[in-house]
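Friendly challenge for the regulars: who can give me the structure tokens for this chain first? No prize, just bragging rights.
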Amino acid sequence: MLYAGLMLTADGPRLIEYNCRFGDPECQVLMVMLESDLLPLVSAAATGTLHEQSVQWRDGAALTVVLAARGYPETPVKGGIIAGLEPEDPDVTVFHAGTALRDGVLTANGGRVLNVTARGATLAEARTRAYATIGRIQWADGFCRRDIGAKEA
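First reply, four minutes later:
Bragging rights claimed.
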């Protein structure tokens, strides 16, 4: 998955960064919208037959909110206990980015720790689902931006 981070400036768009990996929130928000099975698509891309594949996408919208550890990005607090991740909404996926199991207890182990990705018929619905799930997560050292998707929703 190739992701380009762009910034719109007075002089036009500028490339800030690019990544090629599946672990980024920018990829995760797309993967929940993919209706097709990913494996045949990746295999076809590797063998030069991707043009023979048909890709199906779900209708609607998706949104991802990153939960980071207090102190991120400079010195994130690690080791805090995380609870409340039991799924309540089938249209929400919580991706683990910086977690660890210590003695059977889920803990924070990085800067960007969880990515809450939600689908909905509209962006506003996806946003509501994502923040509702975040509201159930118990993690004293975690924080997130509260403005993700606000302008578009």
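Residues 61 and 122 are 5 Å apart (CA to CA). The longest strand covers residues 12-20. Your move, everyone else.
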